[in-house]
Amino acid sequence: MPLYEYTCRGCGRRFEVLQRVGADARDVVCPGCGGHEVAKQHSTFASAVAGSSGSGPMPCGAPSASSCSSGGFS
Ligand SMILES: [Zn+2]
Q: Does the predicted model carry a pTM greater than 0.85?
Protein backbone atom coordinates (compact mmCIF):
# COMPACT_ATOMS: atom_id res chain seq x y z
CA MET A 1 0.00 0.00 0.00
CA PRO A 2 1.23 3.48 -0.75
CA LEU A 3 2.03 5.89 2.03
CA TYR A 4 0.17 9.19 1.86
CA GLU A 5 1.14 12.37 3.65
CA TYR A 6 -1.55 14.60 5.11
CA THR A 7 -1.65 17.96 6.79
CA CYS A 8 -4.37 18.66 9.38
CA ARG A 9 -6.22 21.92 8.80
CA GLY A 10 -7.19 22.06 12.45
CA CYS A 11 -3.85 21.77 14.24
CA GLY A 12 -1.37 21.89 11.37
CA ARG A 13 0.11 18.52 12.17
CA ARG A 14 1.68 16.56 9.33
CA PHE A 15 1.31 12.80 9.38
CA GLU A 16 1.48 9.80 7.11
CA VAL A 17 -1.16 7.17 6.48
CA LEU A 18 -1.02 3.87 4.66
CA GLN A 19 -4.05 3.67 2.40
CA ARG A 20 -5.34 1.59 -0.42
CA VAL A 21 -4.99 3.09 -3.86
CA GLY A 22 -8.14 5.10 -4.48
CA ALA A 23 -8.89 5.74 -0.80
CA ASP A 24 -9.67 9.35 -0.01
CA ALA A 25 -9.21 11.82 2.82
CA ARG A 26 -12.67 11.21 4.28
CA ASP A 27 -11.32 8.06 5.89
CA VAL A 28 -8.42 9.87 7.52
CA VAL A 29 -8.46 11.23 11.06
CA CYS A 30 -5.73 13.47 12.45
CA PRO A 31 -3.76 11.64 15.16
CA GLY A 32 -3.11 14.94 16.90
CA CYS A 33 -6.57 16.44 17.35
CA GLY A 34 -8.91 13.78 15.92
CA GLY A 35 -10.15 16.15 13.25
CA HIS A 36 -11.34 15.12 9.81
CA GLU A 37 -10.28 18.34 8.09
CA VAL A 38 -7.12 16.99 6.52
CA ALA A 39 -5.45 17.79 3.21
CA LYS A 40 -3.54 15.22 1.22
CA GLN A 41 -0.05 16.31 0.29
CA HIS A 42 1.77 15.39 -2.87
CA SER A 43 3.93 12.39 -2.18
CA THR A 44 7.18 11.99 -4.06
CA PHE A 45 7.11 8.32 -3.14
CA ALA A 46 3.70 7.77 -4.70
CA SER A 47 4.75 9.67 -7.81
CA ALA A 48 7.84 7.53 -8.18
CA VAL A 49 5.81 4.35 -7.91
CA ALA A 50 3.32 5.58 -10.51
CA GLY A 51 6.10 6.56 -12.88
CA SER A 52 7.92 3.26 -12.54
CA SER A 53 4.83 1.22 -13.34
CA GLY A 54 4.74 2.30 -16.99
CA SER A 55 6.78 0.98 -19.87
CA GLY A 56 9.05 4.05 -20.07
CA PRO A 57 11.05 6.03 -17.53
CA MET A 58 8.23 8.60 -17.34
CA PRO A 59 4.43 8.27 -17.91
CA CYS A 60 4.69 10.30 -21.10
CA GLY A 61 7.55 8.19 -22.43
CA ALA A 62 10.08 11.01 -22.24
CA PRO A 63 13.43 10.33 -20.57
CA SER A 64 12.91 13.04 -17.95
CA ALA A 65 10.23 15.10 -16.22
CA SER A 66 11.39 18.29 -17.94
CA SER A 67 10.77 16.71 -21.33
CA CYS A 68 7.26 15.76 -20.26
CA SER A 69 6.29 19.41 -19.81
CA SER A 70 6.79 20.15 -23.50
CA GLY A 71 3.62 18.50 -24.67
CA GLY A 72 4.53 14.90 -24.01
CA PHE A 73 1.03 14.01 -22.88
CA SER A 74 -1.26 13.42 -25.83
ZN1 LIG B 1 -5.17 17.90 13.88
A: no
Question: For ligand 1, a single-atom ion, which residues have Cβ within 5 Å?
Answer: 8, 10-11, 13, 30, 32-33, 35
Closest among 68, 13, 66 to 41, alpha carbons compared = 13
Q: What is the pLDDT of residues 28-64, one digit of tens each?
A: 999 999 999 999 987 655 555 555 555 555 566 666 6
Domains of the chain: 3-55 (2.20.28)
Q: Where are the beta strands (DSSP E) in 1-74?
A: 3-8, 14-18, 38-41
